[in-house]
Structures are given as C-alpha cells and as structure tokens.
Amino acid sequence: MSKPRIWISNKTPQLHEIVRVRALIEHRMESGMRLSSENKPIPRNIVNLFEVKMDDELLFSWQPETAISQNPYIEFTFIARKTGTLHLKWIDDENTVITDSLELKLNA
Q1: For 5-104, CATH number?
Q2: So where are the chain's domains?
Q3: Per residue of the chain (108 residues), what is the pLDDT tens digit?
Q4: Residue 75's beta-bridge partner residues?
C-alpha cells in the first residue's frame, strides 16, 4: 500500500481555530461477498478502525462497515487546542496498520 494522502487546512492554526483534515488511503476493501475466478469466496478485508490522536489524546475514532468503498476517504474537523503531532492510523481485517502523522503548531 502506498503512503496515505493527507491534507490539513492549517498546520499553524490560532488557538481554538477549527482545523479540517482530509485523508485518503489506497485499500481494496474486499467485502467478503465476491467470488474469485475459481468461484471461491474472496475473504473479507476492510479497514475496520480509523483513529486520530493529538499526541496521546484520542480525537476521533471510526469503525467502518462493509459498505465503505475502495480507497476510503474521510474528512473531519477538530478544534486546535495545543501544539503537537496529529497521528492518523488505519487498521484492516488482516491487521495491516497504515499510519501517518503531521505536526501542528499553534500560532501565538
């Protein structure tokens, strides 16, 4: 899998500014409902957990279901309260972990 594509509205926000994040990963997102060319079920393998932390503080957690499309895209907002590292993590059914991080510095 390739590196996630992440966009952030402002890496140097003011205190209490709303920050928007957009993230996209490349992932097949097999639902477990398709058959291979040999007519055998293709095992389910979807991203089943997405978490965002600011340093060690959980900001956002999402548990997608099988109806999510291939190459899942997510957009969320949060309020900038401190300088730190924004950690994004995706985990799929095969326990593959995809991570990325961004530095956020409050503009005083």
Answers
A1: 2.60.40.10
A2: 5-104
A3: 689 999 999 999 999 999 999 999 999 999 989 999 999 999 999 999 999 999 999 999 999 888 888 999 999 999 999 999 999 999 999 999 999 999 999 997
A4: 22
